[in-house]
Amino acid sequence: MSNDKTGMMLQLRSLVRSNGELEPSLASVAVPEPAPDEVLVRIPASLINPNKDQGHD
């Protein structure tokens, strides 16, 4: 989710604690400015499944 008027967007951050517990959070960050040979891609939504990333089913 972004707010083009302020140049800010929300970024998902994840912390995995030593006991294996996942602690997701959202952080407000500046929208990056692409270089002349780069493009900026907006992904409106994405599926999050932390068990898949850790090799669990």
Computed CA radius of gyration, to the nearest angstrom = 15 Å
**SSE class:** mainly beta
Helix content: under 10%
Separation, N- and C-terminal Cα atoms: 29 Å
- The backbone outline, from C-alpha atoms, is elongated
What order do the helices and strands follow?
Answer: EEEH
Indicate the multimeric state: single chain
Q: Could you report the average pLDDT, rounded to the nearest whole number?
A: 80
The count of β-strands is: 3
Strand content: 35-45%
Strand arrangement, major sheet:
1-2-3
Number of helices: 1
The low-pLDDT segments are none
Biggest sheet overview:
3 strands, antiparallel
Structure, described:
With 57 residues, this protein is mainly beta. It contains one helix and three strands. The longest helix has 4 residues.
Short structural description:
The protein is mainly β. It contains 1 helix and 3 strands, in the order βββα.
Keywords:
3 strands, three-stranded antiparallel beta sheet, 57 residues, 1 helix, mainly beta, elongated
Please describe the topology of this protein.
Layout: E1 2-3, E2 8-16, E3 22-30, H1 50-53
Antiparallel strand pairs: 1-2, 2-3
